[in-house]
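ok trying again, last paste got cut off:
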Amino acid sequence: MYLTPQHILFAGATGLTGEHLLDRLLSEPTVARVLAPTRRPLAAHSHLQNPVGELSELLPQLQGPVDTAFCCLGSTIKQAGSEAAFRAIDHDLVLAFAQRARELGARHLLVISALGADPKSSVFYNRVKGEMEQALQGQGWPQLTIVRPSLLLGARQEFRLGERLAAPLMRWLPGKYRGIKATVLARALWRLALEEGSGCRIVESDQLRRLGR
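nice, full thing came through this time. structure:
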């Protein structure tokens, strides 16, 4: 567990899970700074640095030091507008963020992937997530934590009909297929960040629910 003040680089702070995780990070006495680039301004905080703009344009401007990086970037094909645009966010931008975090000194990357991620999947969404995971493992991280939540439960700013219809059912499915609250996922991510280790660890949704209780 970290005892010295931590410097955090954080992508996706305005998303469903990101909002909860940001609140947690800013309330932790061991966190000295959260560097969170976003497209729209965040509420000011003494420990928060918030460059505003497109992440792809901001990445070269970000400065360290960074100890730990969280990547909560994620979209849907419908939200992105096309398969190519989805891949540009959920694969290319994630990898670019991770690479910049590594350049700034981060030794531990925690990234949200998805249930069913598999680079050989016939499902485009799952295949892109699996290819993203595979590419991150090739970056040579001292410590890499990949989490694979099931359907995220919580109040989103944007309306997603499919998720709204599926949410009641997902609360009752067994094991890793059961939906997970964004607040629970955020707590699990922070607890995983405090764990010392090496190499790559993949954490499935049922494990995340237990960690985030």
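cool. The domain at 6-209 is CATH 3.40.50.720 (Rossmann fold). Helices lie at 16-27, 55-58, 77-80, 83-103, 124-137, 161-170, 182-193, 205-211.
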